[in-house]
Structures are given as structure tokens and as C-alpha cells.
Structure to design on (400 residues):
């Protein structure tokens, strides 16, 4: 009898997956499953790429890469945000090589095919009289902008996100997320499959034993603490102009496949006004907020995009696959638009918490992958504090 191929093994494991348990080893160790993840999950989902402030003027662009893919995000001549696959339509070379910059056109370094900011082919040298440049523009990537946050999707039919975002919009509006300035970006490479890195973010069962600095200030490590301090936080949030409603459009509540949205503010411990070392404010309040409320908002958009929003800064996360067991934990810190380093915030103080926490995460995720690689690994039951992992598994199974 012919042995099953890896994708058939994957499908069989999905069929036999035991609810309430972690995923089997195969999902983190098979090259065929990883390649399929990129094709069926990453390419078909919305991915947070950056913020409109990073491409403020026409011609400004940056690259967003994952797996084998590279996407050019650019503001075109008319001021619209566009995205293109960074693949020349001639023989496939990368067109844009610099991570960010300003361009009049994009010229392929191989044979000098030249593309406009809108992706149309402007010129292909010596291609003969029958060549039609109109058929060879850069492949378009779908773009969705929510209050300044840029999401991209490489599939022609991305998840329908707008209805979910419409429900989210009034909750985040006072923070004026469209008015942010990038303060710092950092990448933390970890030798593990992207799913282990993402799953680690989705649960706080590990927070108390693994994150001493985080646990000192954030109540999420213990649901009882969240409840204990929750009512006082809601009063403080309302006082600075923040809505106190929660929004859970995830899992069975999702309005469409891949359109999950989650918004919940939870309390920091008394004495902490924001996510700082000593509890003191780090930057001017965001948007219309009149002060600090000692809370942090967990925001999820789609199935791959996660953010943490304090009253004075915004932190975005990505868990970007590079290969089967190589992932970049990417973090971007934003402050209120116009805030200046040295005057309005100190970059080291601003980034301290999630820098040290990410160093912790690199260690525990690396050890997690090392154990999962063992032939004796068998998934164990999930804790009630890992409640969001089954929702991720459902979304993941549904698309692969």
C-alpha cells in the first residue's frame, strides 16, 4: 500500500482532532503542511502590514514579506494606498529591493521593466511590435484600511471584513488610530513554526511563570484579577473618553470566515497607568483621550493580526513565517501623531516591557518547538486559560 502524503496525513488529523487538545506534531514539522499554510491560510487572509503614516506622501513605499512572498505597499500619485506583489511579470525577479523609500517608478533590476506606482507596466525594452504592456502589470494585492491601519491580502477574494470593522469603529474612534507615529520597530527571530509563536500570544496561561515583568503590571495573568479590578477600570475609562463595551466577533460569532474581530479592555494593577516599568505615563494620551486609565485593550482583526493599546501608545504584533521552523516575532510601537522622541517620549522606556517580554517569548517558544520535534510528543489538554486556542484551530482548519 502506498504511504499517505503529508497533506493527506494533515487532513486525517483534522478529522480526528480532539476538541480541547493541542495540535499534533505533524502541523509543526511537515514541510508540505508549511507550504500549504502559506498558500491556503496566509495568502487568503488579511495581514496587517503597517500604518498610513509610514507612506505619508505619493511615492512613499515599504515592503512587507512573509514566507516566499514580498508585497510592495505604496501611496500612488493620486494619494491612494495600493499594494502589489513584488514579482516582475517578465521572468519573476524581485522588482523592489529596498525595504522602504520613495520612488517615482519601480524598475526591475534584472531587465529594466518599469512599473508605475499603480502597478501598470510603463515599459518593457525590445519586446517586439505585438507586445501589449497592459497585460503585464504587477499582480495586485487587496488593501483594506481601518483607521489608518493597512491590511493586505494576496488572494483575489479576501475575507469580507467591512461589516466587522463597522462594529469595531465606534469603540476605537476616541483613540484616533489614524493619527499615529511609528516610534520603533523590532524583530525577534525564533526557531519555531509560526503557529507555535501565534498560539503563545493567544494564551496567558504561561504569563505568570514566564513573564515576571508583564505579570507585575498586567492582570490578564489571572482571570480573577481581571474581574476584581474590572469595574474600577470601566469607570476610569469612561472618565477619559473611552467606550467600555466589549466586542467578540470570533469563532462562532464571526460575521464571515476570516473576519474575526475582538476588542476588550482589561485592567492593569493599581499604580500602573500604562505598560511602563514604574507605572508612570510613557507618552501623550492617544487621540481624544483626556488622560490615562490604567488599562490595556486587546484588539484582534482577522485571524493573524493582534494589537495591544494603552492610553498612550499602540503596540502591533506579527508572527511572520520565514521557513518551516523559522519565525520572526515583529513588534511595532506607535505613539500619538506628532509626538517627538526625547521631548514627548523616551524610546527605551516606551519599548522596555515588550522587548523583555519578547525575549522571554523567544526562549519559551524555542523550547516548545524543540519538545514538539520529539517523536514521543503527544498533544495534551488545554487549560481554561487557553480558551482562545480552539477558536484559532477552527479558523485554521476551516481554511486549510
Amino acid at each position: 500500500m502506498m504511504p499517505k502524503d503529508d497533506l493527506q496525513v494533515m487532513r486525517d488529523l483534522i478529522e480526528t482532532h480532539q476538541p480541547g487538545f493541542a495540535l499534533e506534531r505533524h502541523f509543526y514539522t511537515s514541510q508540505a503542511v508549511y507550504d500549504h499554510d502559506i498558500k491556503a491560510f496566509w495568502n487568503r487572509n488579511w495581514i496587517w502590514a503597517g500604518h498610513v503614516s509610514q507612506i505619508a506622501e505619493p511615492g512613499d513605499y515599504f515592503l512587507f514579506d512573509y514566507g516566499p512572498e514580498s508585497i510592495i505597499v505604496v501611496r500612488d500619485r493620486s494619494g491612494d494606498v495600493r499594494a502589489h506583489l513584488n514579482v516582475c511579470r517578465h521572468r519573476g525577479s524581485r522588482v523592489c529591493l529596498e525595504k522602504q523609500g520613495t520612488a517615482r517608478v519601480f524598475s526591475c533590476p534584472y531587465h529594466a521593466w518599469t512599473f508605475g506606482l499603480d502597478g501598470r507596466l510603463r515599459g518593457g525594452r525590445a519586446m517586439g511590435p505585438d507586445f501589449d504592456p497592459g497585460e503585464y502589470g504587477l499582480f495586485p494585492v487587496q488593501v483594506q484600511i481601518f483607521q489608518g491601519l493597512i491590511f493586505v491580502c494576496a488572494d483575489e477574494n479576501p475575507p469580507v471584513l467591512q461589516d466587522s470593522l463597522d462594529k469595531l469603529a465606534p469603540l476605537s474612534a476616541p483613540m484616533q488610530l489614524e493619527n499615529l507615529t511609528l516610534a520603533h520597530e523590532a524583530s525577534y527571530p525564533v526557531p519555531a513554526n509560526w503557529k507555535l509563536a501565534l498560539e503563545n500570544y493567544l494564551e496567558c496561561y504561561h504569563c505568570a511563570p514566564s513573564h515576571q515583568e508583564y505579570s507585575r503590571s498586567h492582570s490578564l495573568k489571572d482571570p480573577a484579577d481581571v474581574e476584581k479590578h474590572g469595574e474600577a477600570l470601566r469607570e476610569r475609562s469612561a472618565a477619559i473618553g473611552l467606550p467600555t463595551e466589549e466586542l467578540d466577533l470570533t469563532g462562532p460569532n464571526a460575521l464571515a470566515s476570516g473576519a474575526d474581530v475582538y476588542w476588550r479592555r482589561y485592567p492593569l494593577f493599581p499604580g500602573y497607568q500604562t505598560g511602563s516599568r514604574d507605572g508612570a505615563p510613557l507618552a501623550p494620551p492617544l487621540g481624544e483621550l483626556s488622560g490615562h486609565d490604567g488599562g490595556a485593550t486587546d484588539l484582534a482583526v482577522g485571524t493573524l493580526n493582534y494589537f495591544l493599546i494603552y492610553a498612550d501608545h499602540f503596540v502591533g504584533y506579527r508572527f511572520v513565517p520565514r521557513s518551516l521552523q523559522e519565525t520572526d516575532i515583529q513588534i511595532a510601537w506607535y505613539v500619538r501623531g506628532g509626538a517627538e522622541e526625547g521631548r514627548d517620549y523616551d524610546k527605551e522606556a516606551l519599548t522596555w516591557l515588550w522587548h523583555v517580554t519578547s525575549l522571554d517569548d523567544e526562549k519559551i517558544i524555542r523550547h516548545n518547538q524543540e519538545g514538539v520535534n520529539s517523536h514521543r510528543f503527544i498533544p495534551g489538554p488545554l487549560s481554561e486559560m487557553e480558551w482562545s486556542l480552539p477558536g484559532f484551530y477552527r479558523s485554521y482548519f476551516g481554511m486549510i
Remarks:
- Residues 82 and 187 are 25 Å apart (CA to CA).
